[in-house]
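[step 3/7] inverse_fold.run input=structure_tokens len=416
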């Protein structure tokens, strides 16, 4: 018989995971708002506007699958803690690259930023371990909600560093990157405080597939991908993440392109992150009630409406509203997709499946960021808006036509 849920510090671990994700969100505030600007200023090449986001999105993708496999083997928290340690090294490296105007250091630092973010975001798998299937979306949402506080770090901590800086140079970027490193150090301390490991809690409570424990042999990834519902969830996860992250990473440069200051970008990015996470507790409850597939499709459609409006708006307020809507649509589609994927994987398989999803999402997002940067420089913001809208509307249509929605959680038999 499994021990009672009350015998484990699930609430405490959930709060700590949320707080840790808030710290990672603080680092990403800088990466998103000034990552593109940093690389352009250091290299002096404006045509590579999409390269900065592409670098850390690609390395986030590369880190996701091995990090997920490591989580299945060693537990969730040692791997997540390593993501924060990587983030400290990353931000300090970028700061030194700005100080010495060194392109190699900035590129290496941005690559490590991606590896850090791609590892820490797997915290949602840790959250899923501690909750039964009928409350899983809410459990994931509780942890993701922590990123709302990371959003507050933009206007409160980083924006004052750019006030009056209408012409940002490399020297003015050193301190913000170092501050981001200090925030990641705080995240490392928090991550190390999560005990016992969420995977161990899931094993003890029997929250695997059909009571599976961590000792069962995991099925090969190709076999997991053949399970009903996995591919549609992957399609939604990849489309929603790739469009969200590519538009988000280009938005700072677009805001400046509309004639606004670098400091104003933090309002837009913060509005976006609030959209992603501010209502995520409600989002989780709604998904658990209405089902995964309606949430997947509805979220993608909300994203499409938000991105198409970017073709006609230019003020900070309207850009903030559009990015808020983009984040909200992502919350529905991404939490639903993650819940669906976790439902269909055993405890010993979840890290690799979620990591594979992030691998595909990251590389797709990097590709869209590169293409979006080229399209923005060649055609304008209209090209970015239309391309992003098509990229989410088409998967929504395909998912609608895909047939009946599979059950939310089937009994799975782990290999062995």
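[step 3/7] decode complete -> sequence:
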């Amino acid at each position: 018989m499994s021990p009672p849920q009350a015998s484990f510090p699930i609430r405490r671990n959930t709060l700590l995971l949320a707080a840790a994700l808030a710290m990672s969100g603080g680092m990403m505030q800088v990466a998103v708002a000034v990552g593109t600007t940093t690389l352009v200023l250091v290299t002096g090449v404006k045509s590579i506007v999409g390269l900065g986001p592409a670098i850390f999105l690609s390395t986030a993708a590369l880190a996701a699958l091995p990090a997920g496999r490591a989580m299945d083997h060693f537990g969730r928290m040692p791997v997540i803690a390593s993501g924060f340690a990587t983030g400290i090294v990353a931000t300090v490296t970028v700061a030194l690259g700005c100080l010495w105007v060194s392109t190699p250091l900035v590129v290496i630092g941005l690559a490590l930023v991606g590896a850090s973010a791609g590892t820490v975001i797997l915290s949602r798998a840790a959250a899923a371990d501690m909750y039964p299937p009928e409350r899983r979306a809410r459990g994931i949402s509780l942890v993701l909600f922590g990123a709302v506080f990371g959003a507050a770090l933009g206007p409160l901590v980083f924006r004052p560093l750019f006030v009056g800086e209408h012409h940002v140079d490399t020297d003015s970027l050193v301190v913000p990157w170092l501050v981001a490193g200090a925030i990641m150090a705080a995240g490392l301390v928090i991550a190390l405080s999560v005990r016992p490991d969420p995977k161990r809690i899931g094993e003890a409570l029997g929250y695997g597939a059909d009571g599976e424990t961590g000792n069962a042999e995991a099925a090969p990834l190709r076999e997991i991908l053949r399970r009903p519902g996995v591919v549609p969830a992957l399609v939604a996860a990849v489309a929603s993440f790739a469009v969200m992250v590519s538009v988000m990473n280009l938005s700072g440069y677009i805001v400046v392109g509309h004639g606004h200051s670098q400091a104003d970008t933090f309002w837009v990015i913060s509005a976006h992150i609030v959209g992603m996470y501010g209502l995520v507790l409600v989002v989780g409850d709604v998904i658990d009630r209405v089902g995964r597939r309606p949430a997947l499709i509805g979220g993608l459609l909300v994203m499409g409406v938000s991105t198409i409006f970017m073709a006609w708006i230019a003020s900070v307020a309207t850009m903030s509203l559009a990015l808020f809507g983009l984040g909200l649509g992502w919350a529905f589609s991404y939490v639903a997709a993650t819940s669906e994927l976790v439902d269909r994987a055993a405890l010993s398989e979840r890290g690799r499946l979620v990591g594979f999803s992030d691998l595909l999402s990251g590389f797709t997002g990097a590709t869209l960021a590169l293409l979006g940067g080229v399209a923005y420089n060649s055609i304008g913001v209209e090209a970015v808006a239309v391309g992003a809208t098509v990229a989410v509307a088409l998967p929504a249509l395909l998912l609608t036509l895909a047939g009946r929605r599979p059950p939310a959680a089937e009994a799975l038999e782990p290999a062995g």
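[step 4/7] annotate
The longest helix spans residues 10-43.
The domain at 9-401 is CATH 1.20.1250.20 (Growth Hormone; Chain: A;).
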